[in-house]
Structure formats: C-alpha cells, structure tokens
Amino acid sequence: MAFLARRLGAAVLLLGVLSLLSFVLLAAAPGKPENLLLGPRPSTPETRAAIRAQFHLDDPIHERYLSWLGGALHGDFGTSVYTREPVTSIITERLPVTAGLATYALILTIGVGIPLGLAAAMRRGGRLDQGITLTSLVALAVPPFALSILLLYGFAVTLGWFPVFGAGETAAERIAHLTLPAVALAAGEAAVVVRQMRAAALDLVGQDYLTFARARGLSLPRVWISYALRNTALPVLTVGGLLLAANLTGALFVERAFGLPGLGELLVTAVARKDIPVVQALVLLGGAVVVVVNLLIDLTYLAVDPRVRHGAVAS
Amino acid sequence: MTAVSGTPLFGGRVARLRRTRPGFLTVVSAAVLALMALAAIGGTWIAPYDPAAQDVALGASMPSWAHWAGTDDLGRDVLSRCLAGARSALLWPVIVTLCTCAMSTTLGLLAGYRRGWVDAIMMRVVDLLIALPGMLVLIVLVGVLGGGIGWAVLALAVLFTPGDIRVVRSLTMAQRELAYAEAARTLGLRPTRIMFRHLLPNIAPTVVAGALLSFVAGLVALSGLSFLGIGLPAGTPDWGLMIEENRTLLDLNPWASVIPAALVTIAATAATLLGDRLFERLSDAA
Amino acid sequence: MLLEINGLTIAGPAGTIVDGVGLTVAAGEMAGLVGESGSGKSLTARAAIGLLPKGLRASGSIRVGGVEIVGTAGERVLRGLRGRRVSLLMQDPFSMLNPLRTAGAHIAETMPGRATREEVARRLAEVGIDDPSVAGRYPFQLSGGMRQRVALAAALAGDPELLIADEPTTALDATTQHEILALLARVQADRGMGVLLITHDLRVAFAICDRVSVMYAGRVLEQGPGTSLAQAPAHPYTAGLLRALPSVEYTLEHLTGIPGSVPPAAQVASECAFAARCDHATTRCRASRPPLREIGDGRLTACVHDTLPRLTARDVATGTLPTGSGEPLLVVDDLVKRYGTHTALGGVSLQVAAGETVGLVGESGSGKTTLARSVLGLVTPDQGRIELDGLDITRRRALTRQERARVHRLVQCVFQDPSTSLNPAMTVGATLAEAATRAEPADRLAPGDLLELVGLPPGYATRRPKGLSGGQRQRVAIARALAVRPSLLICDEPVASLDVSVQAHVLELLRGLGRELGTAMLFITHDLAVVRQIAVRTVVLFKGRVVEQGDTATVLDAPAHDYTRRLVAAIP
C-alpha cells in the first residue's frame, strides 16, 4: 500500500508540474498575452482591454493559475484563439483518429513484438535470431517521420496499395488509411518489445529456477505459463511507459506525415499558430495519459510480483 | 559471508565465442558514418550547385543529368542540399551527445559514488524529468517560445541526461561495492581519482554505447523538430527540413523528400549498429 | 543400478571439458563426486539429468534406471524420467526457486496428480518444516536454509529414486550446512533412495558418502569408500588435497598446497592429467593415459605407480604462531552499528596487539564484515570507539589530513572475492605502483619487489587481472595491501573463494608475512580450520555480539558458549 501511495503521490506531483509548465507557457511566450489570445484578428485598444478583462489578465498570476486549473479539472480549457471553438470540443472531435491510430499500433507492437522476441531467444545465435535482432535494431533507429515518408513513397505512391492522405470515412476505409501510419508508429515500439522480450527470455533460460523446474520434470505448458510468461512479463512491462511516450510523440510525426487530422496534428498546428489554450490542454492531456498508464503498469506489477506487494523491494 | 565456491559455468566461453573480428555490418556502419562526417565537413565544396540557388522557372523536377536528384519546388538542387544538409543534421546531434555525455557521466559518477544527500536530490530531479513526456514538452517549449536551434540543442541535452545519469549511477554503485574500489578507498586515494581512474574505465563500455545512442536520439529528435518546422529557420539546408518542405512533392519529385528521409534513416541505423557492436566488444574485453 | 555412467565425454566449442567419466549409483547409496572448481563435476551432474547448457554435447553412455539418455532420448523421454526417476537439487537457494511462486506451489506443481494442502504440509514436514503456513510464503520471505529445505521438498515431490545434489550446502552457513546435510542423509535413508552428492568439500564427502569419486580436469582419478580414501589415498592428487586441507584439531607446521594450476581437459587428453603437478611423475605418466585400475577393497586409482602416496603432513608436530608484543594496536570498544531496524553490531569490543593475529569467526549476518569495514573507515559506526595505534579513528571525517594519511598507512585490507579484488582495467604493475605512492617515501617498494614478496615473478607486473588465477589475484591483493607497510592487515575471508590446494598456499603466505614483517592481522573467516592455522587468539561473533574470545586452542577445543559449541559440532 505504501508503494501505491508513493506512486499516486508522484503522479499527482507530476501532473502539477506539467500544469504549471503549460500555464507558465502563456506568460513566458514572446509578445503580450492579450495579443496571443487575440490571435490573428485586428485589434483596437478596446478589444485588448476587453480580452484582458475576460481572461483576468490583471489578476495576480497565482490566482489566474488556480482559476485555469479549476476550469481544466472541470473539462473547461477555454476557447481556441484561432477558431473560437471550445478547446474541449476540438479535442473530442480529433480524439478518435489518434485513439484509433494508437490502438492499431499497439496491437501491431504486441502482436509482432512478443512472438518475434521469443522466437529470437529460442533460436539464439541462429540465422533467425540474427535476422530479427538486426531488423529490430534498424527499426529502433528509424525515425517515425522518415519511415512515414519512405512507406508513403513505397506503398502508397509507387505500389498504390494504400491511400496517400487523410483518415477515411467508413470503417474499412479507416483501417486502410490507418495501416501505413500504424506501421510507421509501431515499428520502433515493436523493436523495443522484441529486444526486451528476447533479453528477458534469455535471462530466464539462464536462471537456476528454470533449470530446477525442468529438472523436476514439469510439463511444458506448466513451464511456459507459470515460468516463462509470468517471469518475462515483468521486464517487458517495465518498458511500457517508454513505449507510451514513444507512441505519443511518434503520433505527432506520423499524423503530420500522413495528413491525419488527429491530436498530434492539432498540437503541431496549434504550436505553429501559438494557439496557447489548445497547446495547454494537449500538454496536460498527454501528461495525464502518461501518468495514468504508468499507474496502471505499477498496478500490474503489484499483481504479478509478490516482492513488490510485500514491500520487499523499494522500486 | 559464506564461501560460494565454483565458477560460473560458461560465462567465459560464451564471451570468447562472441569476440570475433569486426563483422561486415560494423565495418559498413563505420564507413557510412565516416562518409557522412566527410560530407558534413566538406559537403558545401563538393556540392555541384549552391544549395540556396533557386531556379523558380524550372521548379520541381525529376532527376536529370543536370540535377542527379532533381530539384525542389523552388528549383534548388536536391543533391547539393542533401550534401550541405549533412552539416546541420550531424553537427547538432554531436553537440547534444557531448553535452549529455559530459553531464551524465560526471553527475552519475558523483551520485553513485558519493550517495547521501547529493544522490537523493539528484535522483528526485531525475525521476521527475524522466517521467515528463519529454519530446512533447520540448516541442511545445521550443515551438511556442522560439529561440531556435541553440535552445533546442540545450533542451535536448537536458532531456537526455537524466536517463544516462541513472545508468551511470547504477553502474557506479555496483562498481563501488567491488573489492578493488574498496581497496582504493582503504588506500586513501582521492575520490576524484577513484571515480575517474578506477570506476570510469570499468563502466566505459556503457558510456560509449550510451553516447552513440544519444547521438541517434539527438539526430532523430532534431531532424524531427525540423520536420515539424521547429528550430532551424525555413530554407536552411537540413535533412529534416527538406523532408518537411518537399513531402507534398511526392508526385513531382519524390526524391526531394525520400533521399533526406533515407539519409536520416541510414545515419541513425549505422550509429545504432555501431553502438550495439561496440558495446558488446568493449564489455567482452573488460 | 539407478545411475550408470560410462565413458561420458562432454565437449563444448572450446574442446573437451569432461573426458571419459564413469560412475554408478545404486539404490540406497550415497555416492560422492568431489573435485575443485573446473573439474567438470557439475557438468557431469547436469548431463545425468539431461540438462546440459546449450552448446555442450555429451557422448558415451548415461543410463538412468536402465534408460539410455545420451543421444537417442528426446525431451519427451527425459521429461518422463525427471522428477519421478531422477531429480536435481542445486547450489544456490536464492536463485533456485521462482521468485513469483510460493513455496507450496513449487512442491505442488511437481507432485504427480492433485496436491492437497495436507499433502504439501506433509512434504514440508519431511524436510523439517513443521509450520504449514510456510507453504504460502514466497522465497524472498524465507531464509537460505529454509529455501534449501523447500527446494529439497520440491525436488523430492515426484518421489524420485535418485537425487542429484549439486553442492547443496555450499552457499549456506556452517551450522545450516550441517543441518541440511543431516537432513539429506536422513531422507536418503528413510526413502532408501540413491543420492549423488557433488561437492568441493572433501570433509563433507568423506564424512557422509558411502563411495567417493575424485574428479580432476574432466576425469575421475580415484574411486573408493569415503573412509578408506580419507585414510589412505591411492592417487597423489587426492593425497595432495588432503595434505592441503587445514586441520581443525591442531596448527600445522607447514600448509602445503599443490603447485601449479588445473590444466584444461583437452590439453592432457593422452597423459596423466595430474602429471604436471605431481612429485612422483615419471615418463610413464606422460606416455599414455593411465586407466582406472582396481587395487582391491572396491578401490580404483588412475595412478600408474604401485606405491601409495604418503600423507606426511599429519604426522608433523604442532606449529607455532606469532603472539605479538602485547602492546595494543587496535582497540575496539563497545561498537554499535544499525541499519534501519537491523542491528549489525550490538556493542562489540576487542583488541589486537601489535604483531598478533586474531581470528574473527562468525556466520553471515554476524557483523564480522561490518566490523572490518568500520575499522577501515568504509562504514561510520553509530556508537562506540575505534582506536588504532593510539589514534581515535571512529569518525574518519573528524581526522585531519595528516592523520587520515597516517591511518591509511596503518591499516589495510585483503578482500574476499578474487574475481573483483583487482581493477580489471589496470595492470598489476599499475595497481601496485599506485598503492606504493601512498607509502612513506622511505618504505616505497617497486611493483617487482612487492610481487616477489608474495611469491610471484616480477614479470607479472605487465599482466592484467584477467590473465591471473584466483590464487594469484589474491597474492597481488596482498601485495597491494602491503605496499604501504601497514601495521594491521585486515583479511576479510581472503581464502573463502579459493580451492583447497590454492587456499593452503595463500594461508601459508599470510602466516609467513605475519612472522617476517611483524604485521598484525585481524583474520575474518567462517572456517574454524582456517582460524586454527593462522590465529593465536579467536573472537567469536554471533548476531552482532562477541559471545566468546580467547586462545584459539581453548575456544575450539573447549568452547564455552553454546553457539561456539554448535559451530564446532557442525564441522563434518
């Protein structure tokens, strides 16, 4: 329980820091805040004064932070200075694309990464292992945006197998439109899983307890489920947080490269337009996702590893 | 402590097996990186055209005898821009790597060797920085606040350092408990001497491999920022920026974006491969 | 026969490791397989259960309960044999159990059919665990001895006819070791099962095994009943091992190790493997490989000579040890060190006189290493006082620069683990030269002289630690400590990780240095026989307290404290 309390505390602290960071962003951005908030519209001293009043810009900064945070906690992130729409509705409109892309990539990552990692470990040193290890190394190094361009050129432009831009309308179209982006996003993540899985499996093979289990004549399914899967799950889980961060930033590049109207694309555009309320909301949202997923990973740890459960290891 | 006799059964033998002559891929990777480094140094002299020279009348064109890799929409020679772009694409990541390496090695050694409050404070900060969705924060900070490539490089170094500090620190902590390190302390050697003369050589393989990985991460991150139009001013010859500026020309001259994309990929792959192999060889030799 | 091994050869990528081993285990028999590290005994054990590490191949014949398992048998056949016909108990209780599974789960999963709670409790009771709640505990919640008991119960859960026990007590404390061995012997007798006990400890093997095979460089050199082997070894190697074995009963005049080191099996394939290190070696020994031949009484030897080697060392009169001047050099007074709620040292007081060697005996967790580290300044004690040559060194930070430099010259240390005692990145010469810079200019010795002091050729200065054997590394570590001419040398289990034959050399070296240089020593060990050979006085530490101290002879021959008595009784 102490473990969980500590993790919860850290999560709250992290969100606090993130919210502070994204709030301070507005104050620190070059130019006067009212000009930023006005966006591209023509301004008169009157409109500027109105904006100052509307956003309480003359209040002390900590009060403004608290009222912004209060709004954020109720799902109110203000309005976009560019489109004048509520930030929340812009985000909900864009969310499905990114969520679809992330889920698709996650399925690919796990579906490809775990079997390949295991296969490489089982054929250690063989051609299959060398091939998988090398491929994963390359996939690990390739930046998602470069891979996106290469995939686009190869499979969409030259071969014409997949659509070039956009997100598609029907479900089937969606899948077709999202396939290349999901591959571009998943490649690096799958590589991480492959390497981690391979290392975990090799480590397991070297463990005395596995030899001891085999020496007692345990059946194969028993060895696989009680030993191999459970014991390798932990080291693979530890990279979960890393994967998520890669997923978030990767989505940014991939969405832009494929012209997908998702949250990543929204963030990049908002940054370019200095649409601060949108940026703030997205940073906070991204941070919240990272924090929540890391908490989930900790919970899984708690469920799988008795040492953590009984506080024997301070992790 | 009770005696545990008997040696690990196969550690030595397996290690010896792996210690073969440098493989084909290692040589190729090193050669590729060397070539790219040459381009970074002398690319602007070899380049057939001035990378900034425009030929708006020509516009985007497919490869031809005059322009081996074609031109972009402003009629600039893609080949020349790729050669010239090597400099900014590789130089900045090198600076990121040097900064990261210097900071993480010094701080990691200090935290791992000294422990106590130095370590406690440093680890709190490190934990926080690691938990932040780093690239996201970086994009927002540099994108909104401006400040150009210099700030981006600095921010990246700050972003990469915590992870490496953790690695160096845990290795240092493991080494410092070993008998040779305790013997050095018993002899009354100066802490700096113990840290840099005794501990550092034994964690060097990881530091070197980590440096190559930092280089890759820096390369990917910086060209990624350029790809998002953040950092370098528009029009600078740079691989990431070229991909961004020419990606809409896939039908007119795909090479204008495909070649820089391939170059970034190849550079990153070569450095990763080299780091991976170097790490294996160095850790075997120890 | 439960196990019949014939002409077993195991080869890896680097060549042959085990070469033509033959041995048998019958029902109801406790067979021993002894050898130093690298002799191939553990691999032989692994091969016998079909679990050789990847990359190694076995040839020859191994029959388990009549079933041949070399070559033809697939994984299916082996899995049928394992657990029910043959089972394995391994060395390290801390790594043998799956950290994510409970003790009970380990036992239950091995039992044929469904395991009830009562049955698991009964199995635990068989290995001396009467508390059934242990079944629900995880390995990390159990002590080393308990884990080894649980592992034994798990290994026996399938009711095997044959148990292969690979160094089952090596990682345990002396008293626990004693208990586990007794338990193993009892279970073996109760079940009428066959046991193949693999150990590096000659005393253990000779004490509890019906028949013992002595392995060296991948082959068996001698076989026979344990007691007769101990009294009249028929192979010079066995004799050498016995001679090197420190006695717990008296202090030997000379400790004689075996010169040289073990050759790789592949290098000595067609000669006597021991010839290069043997006093009796003749050209016959190198001409061909001597086969194991019978010499009566169920004994076999691979020595070509008919005369048996003599065990001379045992007859020699008691040796003497330097007693020191009586002037106190190190005074430890009421030292306390706590780690959280754990008390490592609970008020320890002891003295070491100049030139005297004091033994510090205790098991893991007794606080002996914490005490050493406190004196060395690697740990700051919570309470109490440490005085060295009249200087209060309890808190190193409180000392002036000059005082600190003086302390570093007064006390040095030799650590336990030879594999980490030297910096792998530095040559031996660089290590010694660096240490010498800390000495008084007048005392400064060159690396070559320091090496000579510890009996190594000066040419070793250019080598790196990787190119040295364990014993040689410990010698260099001793030379490094001596480079500053310390008055007090703390030896923290310096021979615990070494093979017997090497251990004797290092002990003899330390004894000689004590005599010639007049260096006082605080010698930390868990081995009473070692303490008998080196220390005039002995301090017994138990759970952070001194429970007994006095003349080594008195402490060992007439122990006053209950714990010391248990320690003495635990000697095999």
From TrEMBL, chain A:
The chain crosses the membrane at residues 101-122, 134-155, 175-194, 232-258, 278-297. Its main location: membrane. PROSITE patterns: ABC_TM1. The lineage of its organism: Bacteria, Bacillati, Actinomycetota, Actinomycetes, Streptosporangiales. It comes from Microtetraspora fusca. This is ABC transporter permease. It comes from the Bacteria. Belongs to the binding-protein-dependent transport system permease family. CDD domains: TM_PBP2. It is found in: Cell membrane. Residues 95-297 form the ABC transmembrane type-1 domain.
